[in-house]
Amino acid sequence: QVQLVESGGGLVQAGGSLRLSCVVSGNIFRINAMGWYRQAPGKQRELVARIVSEGSTNYADSVKGRFTISRGNAKNTVYLQMNSLKPEDTAIYYCNLEASTPITRKPYGLWGQGTQVTVSS
Questions:
Q1: What gap in Å lies between CA 37 and CA 112, rounded to an integer?
Q2: I need a labelling partner for 121 at 20 to 30 A (CA). Which of 5, 82, 103, 108 fits?
């Protein structure tokens, strides 16, 4: 059974940094992309950053220049380095996996359980 396990959230003052990690456990035929999304209270879940298998990345405008997404050498781990954090970055951060099944190449997605990031002013 495939699981996404996140870590690294916590409480930090504005201007500080945090690094989130997400490890994919279990067998995956093909990882197409991994990403980080966040959901603040009363708001919809939104994309923060995403990295595709070829390595290209995209970011939400609100985090460009402050956050960096990267992968581990084994490609089953994704990180989110968050610098210059602001109170408006406070949210639950979710790791997302986009993958394909073998033979039929049917795409599917998986979510982690989420990790809380709180930025105090």
A1: 10
A2: 5
List b or e across 68-82, with b for residues whose CB sees 16 or more CB atoms inside 10 angstroms: ebebeeeebbbbbeb
Closest Cα to residue 19, out of 97, 93, 96? Answer: 93
DSSP-derived pairing of the beta strands 30-39 and 91-100: antiparallel
101 against 40, higher pLDDT: 40
Which of 103, 83, 87, 84 is CA-nearest to residue 29? 103
pLDDT tens digits along 67-118: 999 998 877 899 999 999 999 999 999 999 999 988 888 889 999 999 999 9
Beta strands 18-25 and 3-7: pairing type?
antiparallel
Only one residue has tokens 């959230």, namely 9
